[in-house]
Design brief:
280 residues; alpha/beta; D-Maltodextrin-Binding Protein, domain 2; Alpha-Beta Plaits; 5-stranded mixed β-sheet; 8 helices; 16 strands; 27% helix; globular
Length: 280
């Protein structure tokens, strides 16, 4: 049986590159897989819940722009999903266009994350160009051949796949640009060096978050990330997504989670996993 891996398509996206890397991980374990492109990140995750696919590979955090909020928000809703693997992919953006030079460009398309990761370059090099967000970095590539005043920010791999000219590369605002992806499924988490969880607090009171954080601090459990997201119920109510550098099966973490339940309204544990650096 071949597992289907959902990812943000179409072909040529960074999500596809991460999905291909995870496919190689599965192949090393003797598991065959094939890729299943989806129109949005949320659709990629919901493809597992609807059993269209068995796995989804989605971006969760970028070193320049920060968290991919749609991933976090959807994961809170689909709390039966478990993280199987984290993959860190280097991101190097290129400006693709048939234009003869930057002066000819009037419009630039790309995914909002890619546009944000190239914001300084765009403001400096194309201050008068209209910037238009798309669902993915490759969605707008179809427009390039029709109009030489149009450009798209995508990967050089996308340029090769679609036989498109690269006008400038790289254009991301920092050379050490990378994105962390999660491979998720309905299977139990395999365990590993890092764990992710999310929780809500019963009331927005002074010290309520500090009590939660102290639970980890007292046990010398390091938090590598904490981020708030609105509950979408009421203004001023938040969820908190947290990554810890430990396995949830460890006795110290089990004790911390047991105490954590006393101070949280809802606690969701997305699993423990290892982090795999990926060569682009």
């Amino acid at each position: 049986m071949s597992l289907a891996i959902a990812y943000l398509g179409p072909s040529g996206t960074y999500s596809e590159m991460a999905a291909l890397a995870y496919s190689q991980v599965l192949q090393s374990r003797g598991i065959e897989s094939h890729l299943y492109p989806c129109p949005t990140i949320a659709h990629s995750l919901r493809a597992i819940a609807s059993q269209q696919t068995q796995v989804a590979v989605v971006p969760v955090e970028n070193s320049i722009e920060g968290s991919v909020t749609v991933t976090l928000d959807t994961l809170w809703q689909l709390d039966e999903l478990r993280i199987q693997q984290a993959l860190v992919l280097p991101i190097s953006h290129a400006l693709l266009s048939y234009a003869k030079g930057l002066d000819a460009l009037r419009t630039v398309y790309s995914h909002p994350q890619a546009l944000a990761q190239c914001q300084v370059w765009l403001e400096t090099s194309l201050p008068n160009a209209q910037v238009i967000p798309t669902h993915s970095t490759t969605e707008a590539l179809q427009y390039l051949e029709q109009d030489e005043t149009v450009a798209a920010i995508a990967s050089q791999r996308a340029a090769q796949l679609y036989h498109l000219p690269t006008l400038v590369h790289p254009i991301n605002d920092h050379p050490d640009n990378c994105t962390r992806f999660w491979a998720l499924s309905l299977e139990s988490s395999p365990g590993g060096s890092h764990s992710s969880l999310a929780f809500s607090l019963p009331a927005n009171l002074p010290g309520s978050l500090a009590k939660v954080l102290q639970i980890f601090a007292q046990r010398d459990i390091n938090l590598s990330r904490i981020e708030s997201r609105p509950t979408k119920r009421s203004l001023g109510e938040y969820l908190f997504f947290t990554d810890i550098e430990a396995d949830v099966k460890a006795p110290l973490v089990q004790a911390a989670l047991e105490e954590l339940r006393q101070y949280t309204e809802t606690l969701k544990i997305f699993g423990s996993y290892t982090i795999l650096p990926v060569n682009a």
